[in-house]
Amino acid sequence: MRYDLVIFDNDGVLVDSEPISNVILAGYLTELGHPTSYEDSLRDYMGSALHRIHDLVRERTGRSLPDDFDETFHARVFAAFERELVAVEGVTEVLEKLVADETPYCVASSGSHQRIAVGHRKTGLDRWFKGGNVFSAEDVGRGKPAPDLFLHAAERMGTAPERCVVVEDSPLGVQAARAAGMDVYGLTAMTSAEKLPGAQGYFRGMRELLGLLV
Q1: pLDDT of 194-208, one tens digit each?
Q2: Which among 208, 181, 174, 142 has a CA at the least distance from the CA of 46?
Q3: What is the CATH number of domain 18-84?
Q4: Sign of the C-alpha dihedral computed for residues 116, 13, 147 and 194 taken in this order
Q5: Cross-strand partners of 108
Q6: What is the spatial distance between Cα 51 and Cα 45, in angstroms, rounded to a whole number?
Q7: Residue range 3-39, pLDDT digits in tens
Q8: Residue 214: pLDDT above 90?
Q9: Region(s) of the chain under CATH 3.40.50.1000
Q10: What CA–CA distances, in Å, run from 150 to 27, 33, 49, 110, 177?
Q11: Region(s) of the chain under CATH 1.10.150.240
């Protein structure tokens, strides 16, 4: 079906940040006495807001992360972004087609506004996302798998949830989209389709997405 709004996740969908940030997260948690592998980080935290990291660590260990955890983690991630981050291959072609077809789009990310801005500036995607179509879990207080962020984005963009489609690559993101009453397509570049149940369709690369949005 033709949708009135395409909502993109950011990390792993627009910018190839998941390998970078999860290596850093696993290393930092291990450094703090919470042994975490890269695979653990992907399984437990991919697609989630920072509060989920705090909540899971406290639930599992009874200990809180340091007060400066978010600041230190962001500093390490942003420094790595400046060195390494690139846009996901094919994203520009998808955005060009949406603009040509006059299809509204936005980004709705578990990451902070600062994280989104740093990544988009580094990869050149800031030309496509000017602020009015950028939404963060910071805006609603609860990250994915809660539907709040996607519902907020749809409301701000003036679109009914059932007329939206979400582009996601994490189980938490797919769950959030479904809970919001939206269709969702799952990018399987890093996460298999079996781990993204409930999506309307799956695709391996961004250029394949265009065939799903007609």
Answers
A1: 999 999 999 999 989
A2: 174
A3: 1.10.150.240
A4: negative
A5: 135
A6: 10
A7: 999 999 999 999 999 999 999 999 999 999 999 999 9
A8: no
A9: 5-17+85-212
A10: 30, 34, 14, 10, 7
A11: 18-84
Query: What's the whole-model pTM score?
Result: 0.91
CA dist., res. 53 & res. 187, Å (int): 23
CATH of the domain spanning 5-17+85-212:
3.40.50.1000
pLDDT in tens, 149-170: 999 999 999 999 999 999 999 9
Residues involved in catalysis: 9
CA distance 73 to 128: 27
150 and 166 in contact (C-beta within 8 Å)? Answer: yes
What per-residue confidence (pLDDT) applies to 28? 98
The helix/strand/coil state of 106 is strand
Burial 71-99, CB ≥16 within 10 A → b, else e: eebbebbbeebeeebebbeebbebbeebe
Alpha carbons 90 and 207: distance in angstroms, whole number: 5
How many of the other CB atoms lie within 10 Å of CB of 102?
Answer: 6
Written as six digits, the tokens of 130 are 């000017």
Contact 128, 122 (CB under 8 A): no
